[in-house]
Amino acid sequence: MNKRFILGIAAAVGILAQGATAQEMSFFRIGTGGTAGTYYPIGGLIANAISNPPGSRACEDGGSCGVPGLVATAVASNGSVGNINAINGGQLESGFTQSDVAYWAQTGTGLWEGQPAVEKLRLIANLYPESIHLVASAESGIASVADLKGKRVSLDEPGSGTLVDARIILEAYGLSEGDVKPEFLKPDQAADRMRDGAMDAFFFVGGYPAGAIAELASQHDIKLVPIEGEAADKLREKYTFFAADSFPAGTYNGQDGDVATISVGAQMVTSADQPEELIYNITKAIYNDNTQKLFAAGHAKGKLITLDNATEGAGIPWHPGAEKFYKEAGKLE
Questions:
Q1: What is the DSSP string of 73-138?
Q2: Each residue of 203-234: pLDDT tens digit?
Q3: Where in the chain do CATH 3.40.190.10 domains reside?
Q4: Do residues 252 and 214 touch, judged by C-beta distance below 8 A?
Q5: For labeling, which of 30, 58, 291, 325 is most exposed (least CB within 10 Å)?
Q6: What predicted TM-score, i.e. pTM, was given to this entire model?
Q7: What is the CATH architecture of 24-128+266-328?
Q8: Which residues of 305-322 are buried (b: 16+ CB within 10 A; e: fewer)?
């Protein structure tokens, strides 16, 4: 090698080193849910929106409007409870959870009774309402929650927020797991069983339209069972994280009219250990104008991920970075 070639290599290495220092790459994992639900595609939208790896064009040049140097990924998971445990254990930087599950975890009550509270759990944003789906095969004859007695019912898998809410709903209508033939399957697995005639009904908590249910409805006659009446009213009084909701007519194939139900909030949470500046920049990236357009075009629930909804129903403390952004935006005092 001649001296000029060696000096050229040294200069190139120096330039690369300077670039790496100027913009270090960091990774940010977002725990979502099963691939058939709503969390996973929404997680992908958010991951793409906040990512801006080294070498990307800046937002003003028509490139990403995300956080410089950040590479975010949506990770499929078991849902709310699993995501909170993974955040607490350091396996995820953030994740999605139902507002009820977040409250129980952070306070050590309800679902977390007898377990150490996840005291460092912090809120980044309230995203959209998650509707309680109770899907029944049309041939099962199930028309109300009370009709589940003696039927084959999937309550979702252990560790999911859906399982927790399914048990609460059964109790509100005077039933328990012992009154049904319970199974504990993901919604896509339960839908497969229903298609084969081996499942009468299943619960799912998530934004509509849910992929697994939409696919099932296109191939099999189903009925969305209403969660309404005096039992539902008392349920909302007792558990204030539930809200009145409904599925508009035509949400799923064969659904002629609106169907009443209840909902919880889908929230993006993290740990208090995450840097304030990072969470501030992530929150800012989620709510810039370009990202909002991408959300609205990318998913039915994306239209609801707005700055106006972001601070609704906060049952746990804000992460300081998110709180700083919302105060600057005039959404928090």
A1: EEE--S-HHHHHHHHHHTS-SEEEEEHHHHHHHHHT-GGGTTS---TTEEEEEEEEEEEEEEEEEG
A2: 998 878 888 899 999 999 999 999 999 999 99
A3: 24-128+266-328, 130-265
A4: yes
A5: 58
A6: 0.71
A7: 3-Layer(aba) Sandwich (3.40)
A8: bebebbbebbbbebbbbb
